[in-house]
Specification:
With 375 residues, this protein is α/β, with parallel strands linked by helices. Helix content is 33%, strand content 22%. The chain has twelve helices and 15 strands. A seven-stranded parallel β-sheet has the order 5-6-7-8-9-10-11. Strands 3-2-1-15 form a four-stranded antiparallel β-sheet, sandwiched between helices. α5 packs across α6. The radius of gyration is 20 Å and the shape is globular. Bound molecules: 2-succinylbenzoate and magnesium ion (MG). The site of 2-succinylbenzoate has 11 residues, from loops. 2-succinylbenzoate binds next to loops.
């Protein structure tokens, strides 16, 4: 395919509800969207890098710079047949996986459109609906948290994930467990604990959690493996898993028994599928994580979640939990049984609300194929 232009935009969008994790509070998002123009078709990708380099070492401004100066020019020069070509095209650039993923995912979306199939089908999806959970941030009080949990369970969500940190752990697990003894419950520490906390974490076995997500260092396998040997509850790795090799190492070392796949964190759909397959072959279930995406990234998460080994409820939830109004149509909704229907239409299956995106845009840049100079 010939790629005619790549357009970068930053949109600013306030969150409908502030989101607090052990690494900080987010009240609004600055989001890099990429738009790829090719032979009359247009496809979008969302970069999930945050406003600060707190979840990973990427942030929107580094992603913007790398996309503009390194990735987009490479993609424009390359012979592209499909999204699977992108890792090779970007190989010389180390890291910057969230920046790479935004472009690669847009190329997959474009390929689905060109082939007249749904993105889910192109990726190898087999599910027509996906099971949904929610990630609930740190709240001002236990009472406020319980109200949130009640609201999400009433909406049908199949799994509740509680963000935790030292001082916001046993109290909330106890409160939620005593009120809902049977609910699928997990927690996510975003690396807030250290080995001195090992006995404290072992105490969580009594709460019957489905998993404990990324309790230790963001880049660690070894100490998670030591912790996993000491506790009964499954560890789930998020931040630590950057690619298929990391997944293999983590599984081999018993650093985790469940993997959270975020397509941005691993650099795009190609690597996400590779992690999915490696885990599936070893009997390790996976689920799709979230990064407070708009509808562009959410639609891509839905397509990815339709692959067979995404057997646990993911953090892919309704648009209205994040935005007063999303940037796709229709917005993402969740059924009373806590499921999202995987679209069967061509491409992502959602329409991009370009008018709304235009209104939210605060910065833009277009990169086009250099005119070839002929002698
Ligand atoms: O660790 O899963 C995480 C949000 C931002 C950064 C990291 C994480 C999260 C979430 C929210 O847990 C998931 C979502 O609802 O999008
Ligand atoms: Mg996480």
């Amino acid at each position: 395919m010939h790629i005619d232009g790549i357009h970068l935009r930053e949109i600013n969008l306030p969150l409908a509800y502030p989101f607090e994790t052990s690494f900080g509070l987010t009240t609004g998002r600055r989001i890099l969207l990429v738009e790829i123009e090719s032979e009359g078709l247009t496809a979008w990708g969302e970069c999930v890098a945050g406003e600060h380099p707190y979840f990973s070492d990427e942030m929107i401004d580094t992603a913007w710079m790398i996309t503009e100066t390194e990735l987009a020019p490479r993609l424009l020069e390359a012979d592209v047949v499909g999204g699977g070509d992108c890792p090779g095209i970007f190989r010389q650039v180390r890291g910057h996986r969230m920046a790479k993923a935004a472009l690669e995912n847009a190329v997959w979306d474009l390929t689905a459109q060109r082939s007249g199939v749904s993105l889910s089908e192109l990726l190898g999806g087999t599910r027509s609906t996906i099971p949904c959970g929610v990630s609930i941030g740190i709240q001002s009080s236990v009472e406020v948290l319980l109200e949130k949990v009640e609201k999400e369970l009433a909406a049908g969500y199949q799994r509740i994930k509680l963000k935790c940190k030292p001082g916001w752990d046993n109290r909330i697990f106890e409160a939620v467990r005593s009120r809902w003894p049977e609910v699928l419950l997990s927690c996510d520490a975003n690396s807030a604990y250290r080995m001195r906390d090992i006995e404290h974490i072992a105490g969580w076995d009594q709460f019957g959690l489905l998993m404990i997500e990324q309790p230790l260092w963001f880049d660690d396998f070894y100490f998670h493996s030591m912790l996993q040997k000491r506790i009964e509850t499954a560890i789930c790795l998020d931040e630590s898993i950057r690619n298929r090799r990391d997944a293999l190492a983590a599984i081999e070392m018993d650093s985790c028994r469940i993997i959270n796949i975020k397509v941005g964190r691993v650099g795009g759909f190609s690597e996400a599928i590779a992690v999915h397959n490696a885990a599936a072959e070893r009997g390790v279930p996976v689920w799709c994580g979230g990064m407070l995406e708009t509808g562009v990234g959410r639609a891509h998460n839905i397509a990815l979640s339709s692959l067979p080994n995404f057997s646990l409820p993911g953090d892919v939830s309704a648009s209205s939990r994040y935005w007063s109004r999303d940037i796709i149509e229709p917005e993402v909704t969740v059924s009373p049984s806590g499921q999202i229907t995987v679209p069967t239409g061509v491409g992502s299956g959602f329409q991009i609300d370009t008018e709304r995106i235009e209104a939210l845009t605060v910065r833009r840049e277009s990169i086009r194929t250099k005119a070839r100079v002929t002698a």
